[in-house]
Design a protein that fits this description.
alpha+beta, Pyridox_Oxase_FMN-dep, 2 domains, 211 residues, 8 helices, 7 strands, Pnp Oxidase, Chain A
Length: 211
């Protein structure tokens, strides 16, 4: 790497260059994309307590947000429609702000101990106080906003990434001495004392802020 920060090597700038190195996908990988949800997809989503929502603000910011709830919190309305409840957060609403600019979204559903993941690409819109909001109530919290996703593409990702990372294998988890959540927050919130942030992010306190 030179003084300008440019790393040496040949930059790939075209699809032809990329395909010359990687090759073409096999039939199974190429043909796995479907346009609607089937019963296996429904079951996978129903077992998933965690998904990631990716959005783009056009020429503005990108966002990938983790979303967690008890399994079954994401509702499958039909084979082309999903409903995602909004839960209390930090009010930045980066993803929803992006949806107002560009409705295209990508979802990745994760199931504990499973290596495969389910990808859903589609278009989203924000619904305020929908008629079925009561169905999303949990621990007294009824979301005012529900994200409706119209499905365009559905496919499974193979387990290779999870197998390589040993994500679900506690014996392979690295020993870390990373700073606490409070210490990380203190880097951008110096007006709050570290002791104050440690109390805020203590698990017994933070659980009260989930809903």
């Amino acid at each position: 790497m030179d003084g300008s920060g440019t790393r040496g090597g040949t930059e790939i700038t075209s699809l032809e260059q990329l395909r010359a190195v990687i090759g073409e996908p096999g039939d199974r990988a190429r043909d796995k994309v479907r346009a609607s949800l089937d019963e296996v997809d429904r079951a996978f989503i129903g077992c998933s307590p965690m998904h990631f929502l990716a959005t783009s603000g056009g020429d503005g910011p990108l966002d990938v947000s983790p979303k967690g709830d008890p399994s079954g919190a994401v509702h499958v309305v039909d084979d082309r429609t999903l409903l995602l409840p909004d839960r209390p957060g930090n009010r930045r609403v980066d993803g929803m702000t992006n949806i107002l600019v560009d409705p295209r979204v990508a979802l990745l559903f994760v199931v504990p101990r499973r290596g495969d993941t389910l990808r859903v690409n589609g278009r989203a819109r924000l619904l305020l106080d929908p008629d079925d909001a009561a169905a999303f109530e949990h621990r007294g919290h009824r979301p005012r906003i529900v994200v409706e996703v119209s499905v365009d593409e559905v496919f499974f990702h193979c387990p290779k990434a999870f197998m390589r990372s040993h994500l679900w294998d506690p014996q392979a988890w690295p020993d870390t001495d990373l700073p606490s959540v409070a210490a990380i927050a203190h880097r951008t919130s110096p007006a709050s004392s570290l002791d104050e942030l440690e109390r805020r992010y203590a698990p017994e306190n933070y659980r009260q802020l989930l809903y």
